[in-house]
Structures are given as C-alpha cells and as structure tokens.
Design goal:
Radius of gyration: 21 Å
Number of helices: 11
Shape: globular
Order of helices and strands: HEHHEHEHEHEHEEEHHEHEEEH
CATH superfamily of the largest domain: Type I PLP-dependent aspartate aminotransferase-like (Major domain)
Strand order of the largest sheet: 2-8-7-6-5-3-4
Helix content: 25-40%
Length: about 350
Amino acid sequence: MDLPLAGASLADITRAEFAHTTAYLNTATCGVLPRAAVAAVHALADAAGAGDPAGFGDAAVVSRVREAFARLTGVAPQRVAVGSAVSTHVGLVSAALPAGSEVLCVEGDFASVLNPFVVRGDLKVRLVPLESVAGAVRAQTALVALSAVQSADGRMADLAAIREASAGHGARMLVDATQAVGWLPFDAAPYDYTVTAGFKWLLATRGVSYLTVSEEAQETLVPLHAGWVAAESTQDSFYGPMAELARDARRFDESPAFLAYHAAEPSLALLERIGIEAVHAHDTALADRFRAGLAALGHEPAPGRAPIVSVPGLADRRDALLAAGIATAARAGALRASFHLYNTEAEVDRALDALSG
C-alpha cells in the first residue's frame, strides 16, 4: 500500500526522519535507522532496564510488522512467517528436499542462499551464471534458488523468464528479495518461497527477516524450530507439546527479537508513507548519476538498473572514502556504493569528487 506524501517532498521527509552525519552510500550492507525506529528501540530498552513489563516486547507489534511486509510484497499476512535470519528460512526449505534433489543456484550468489543446500551434502547443487538460469532449468531440477538482485554488483535476475522455465519443468522457486524489497516494487505472490532480511532497504536492524510461503508450498515444509509462537493458540502452548500448529505460515515463525521488530514497525510505516514507486525513482536516479559520473572519470562500473553500483578495481578506495566521511563497501574486488531514500545528489557528487583525486 503506497500512501500519499501529503504535500511533503521526499527530501523534506528524509531530512525530518534521518539523523546520519556521513554520506552513507552503503544500504546494501545495512540501512540507516529512521529517528522513529531509534526512539522505539530506546523506549523498549529503557522499559526493560526499568523492569517494566512493557520492556518484554509487544506481540501486537510483530503482527503489525507482518501485515506491513505483506502489503509491501503483495501477499496475504497468512503467507508470511517472521524470523531473525534469511539463512534460517532457507534452511527450512533445504531440509524439506529429498536426498538427491537438484537445486539450481547462481554462481557467486550470496552465501545465505547457497550454503543451506551445499552443507547437506546429499543434494545436487548446480551453479550457473545469472544470465543462464532460465535456460538451465531442466526436468531433474527440484528447486531454483537465487537472489532477485545480486548483492555484490546489483545485477537483476530475469525473474519472469526463470519463473516460466521453472513452472514448465515442475520446479519450485525460492527468491531472496533482500536486495530488492524496500526500493523495488516486488510481488512475492508468484513464488513458492521468498526470503528477505529486514536490516537493509527495509531500514530495520539485524534480527528481522521474513519468509513468504504459498498456501500450497506450506505443506512442503516442516517447522523444525517450532516453539510456542508456532502454535495456533500461543497462550496455551508455553509448556509441553502444542495441541495444534498454526494453520498458516505463522507455523514457521521464530520467537521474535523484539528490539528489532519494534524498530521495524516505524521503518515500514515510513516506506509505506513515501511509497515504493517514489523510492524506486529516487534511488535509481541517484545510481544513474553515479554511473554517469564514474564514466566521465574513466571508470567502468558494472552495468545495471539497481541502486547498487559496483566499480571493479576500486575496492582499495573504500578506506580513504570512509576517512572522508563517505561510507561504501568493498565486495568481490570492487567498490560498491548503494543509494537509498535518505541520499542526495550532493552526496553522489561528493563521492565522485573524492574518487577523482
């Protein structure tokens, strides 16, 4: 659900909502917390420190976060499970595959998408280049698992073509949307499984993650880490075997890290207020400006349309940029800059000036 800006510009909102002092071009590593999220964490921590039961955390907040994420990704809340890490969600999917199953993955994809399948040792993990995934799906493929947007360099998967190929061969799909949801309009509905970390483009902290599971695919997974939060009636399930698992994706919930989820609620509300379409336009425009400026300096960034810009050969400039108050990352031998709603054209130009010296 995209809510109107109510007369305020995106720049006005971000100036009011963010207090960072660096030119922070590193959202692909970790997002900046809005002021309201920082206040929510302080309030919960202060209550916990005072022995106030309010400091235990509020399950209603977790429910509202689940609903907000569902709106952002176009699914019903009943398809969303909450947790703390993408790798845990992927591990559930991996554990459900029969021995000998073929899993098609992308060369160089993020470790959390690959390792839960690799470490089993009895699955056939096949790695192909990102551009070759759709053509590599075959009758033996049980699952295609990949990131919607590559963390290292921002390359984007042709999800429509891969989905068509997967459906044509009867393979399920798992999409890691961590580097997509929050800036890219993303519909999780067509996929059996999606996983998303909440501490990057969704502006929360580590400890928030989301698993979406289609109604049909919910029957394929075993809730191996089921605690009382996975029960249909949580208040009756503190002790002993639960009487009944939750009837929807909540059966795959982990007990929530409440500080992280209290931060997530105002962050998701801010993204809904601005609207993902507006964030997308802003973020990609800044990335395009950076790519054009790099080309003018004689550098050749990796081509792409995402707000993640990778510049091969410049990884060694990261520390000097940080010393100048410009936060970036070094990934896979390249300098990586990533742009989100709190960044400005002036920050792009500041980074380009620093790289020209």
